[in-house]
Task: structure prediction
Amino acid sequence: MDKKRKKNFYTNIETIKNPDTYTVLVNKYRSLGKYAPNDLQSLSFNKKYQLREKAAIAFEKLVNIAKKDHVFIRPYSAYRSFKYQTKVYNAYVKKDGQDKADTYSARPGHSEHQTGLAVDVWTEGHENILEKDAKWLAENANKYGFIIRYTKEKQAITGYIAEPWHLRYVGQKIAKDVTNKNLSYDEYYELYIK
Ligand SMILES: [Zn+2]
Result:
């Protein structure tokens, strides 16, 4: 166990030096500052949802493959700017207080959505993700380069409640490895990427 994780969340924060790498680690100890990616692409489902180039291509592939298994997913949140995350987070703090908001919403600069590599998905026709579809994603998303970034088992490490709808692109090889090893990306990054 890395000693850093024993520290309180949002302490000893470092600024990320490689925000443009597809394997970038963003968490409660690592901030993107006001970084914005320069290769965002609109998703075909709805132009307002954007991901970085490789993530966008992989996502379209994932959606199409899922359909063949009768899993109909669609994005409801993808890239979010620092400014937009500030609005989102502040609204949650106002509603639930900071301690609770911190368990499900990232502080500005700390959201994976700001990398342009994370996308939240819903089951088509629903305002959430059906359990069977979440299960399908947990088993199959890694084949297309995505990991389920926040799971119940890893809440103590990530600081976030389970988010079966939040997909993070890291590329096929790493996604498979993270999934097979059953590690949080925070753990995996420390062990194999850093
Ligand atoms: Zn998300």
Notes: The chain has seven helices and eight strands. The first strand starts at residue 14 and ends at 15. The pocket of zinc ion is lined by residues 77, 113, 118, 120, 163, 166 (CB under 6 Å). Strands lie at 14-15, 30-31, 40-42, 50-52, 73-77, 118-123, 146-148, 166-169.
